[in-house]
Amino acid sequence: MKAGIFEPLKFRPFRSLFGAQLFSDLGNWLDFIALQVIVAYHWGLDETAIAAVIIVLGLPWVIIGPFASVFVDRLPKKQMMIICLFLRIMFVGGLFFAPNLYILLLFVFLKGTVAAIYDPARQSMIRFTVHDNHLPEAVTLSQLSVNTMKIIGPALGGGVIALFGAKSPFLFEAAGFFIAILILLTLPNMDEKEMNADIKSEKKNRGNGNYWKELLDGIKHISYTPLLKSSVILSSVAFFIIFLYDGLFVFIAQNLGFTEGNFGLLISAVGLGSVVGSLLMGNWTHWKRKPIHLMSSALLFSGSLIIVMGLGSMEIVNLPALAWVIGAFFLGFMGSGESVPYGFILQSETPKQMMGRVSAAATSLQTFSMLIAPAMGSLLAKWLGVSFVLIGAGGATCLLGAIVLIFIVRRINDQKDIQEKQFQA
Questions:
Q1: Statement: 1-219 belongs to CATH 1.20.1250.20
Q2: What is the model's pTM?
Q3: Burial class of residue 378 (count of CB atoms within 10 Å of its CB; 0-12, 13-18, 19+)
């Protein structure tokens, strides 16, 4: 009988881990609107200040996460996650009382640093809480939490601001992290024997346990594992292309005829599409045999949708608002066709005891792509115009998907030729 997406929740350890993730992910997105409202409306600062907040949010994932990941792999994951959540509550308190932009940026950086340590630890724990045959469903549930909270978090944050004031989301965020701590306390320690055995085995293999050697081992593992290396490069380039136009989406929506009142429909449709896509992939897991095929095919389809939106922005293609909303839904739907297989490859192609280092190194590369892309997108928009940036991004997405698919097909044909020659010999 085929296992459904919720099958991993039958295991108590994963249930505790996933429950904590729900509240942690919600906390991550609750303050997304609050930070921008405080900076832009309360302090009257310009776009540069907003950009500074976004950059400082991402920096820890690039410059702290990879270096801290060695300790993530060495230390007990459950205790580390609980400590990280306590620290996040403290830093959210700092955001609540921040009197100016500089203090705000300091606490944004500190909160991001703890998040960059928490997430690799959580990724590591997934493998210890479910059997390998339930890994696709577990990874999909994890991605479903991220995608769902991207929708619920900002919407809830906006509602809380309207009811209780601009800084109130920080209080709800802190409460969410506290609930996550309570749930994590129910996580059994059943994995510790296996974890300690893995760590001891790796220590024996690596000799003296040199910090820099351990750090490089995580990077080397990515470069020496073809499927993992391909997925990391593919997702990083895809993230770069997406964030070229992501910050310009509001201007694209204006060109498509959306007003302030219904612009939110477009964003919500993307989020809803990613949730539906994750649910579908969790119940249909045949893709796990060929995850790169799915990632590259999803890029081809999403690139085509982006090109059509770019042509719509130039008024070459004229469609009603509902059609653009449906297009945005499928854009999100295809996005899950990239993110879920990537998460599965990351988990399945990495030894348990190296998960923290490999996850942090991969995330660092992706976040770096995401940080430099908006500035480049903004410059290109000023030079070429928003519509041309969108069409260019769509074309690059299609090209990326096509190149990977062609490479895969050629590789399969080469393998067939080798097998035929061996058979004839």
A1: yes
A2: 0.78
A3: middle
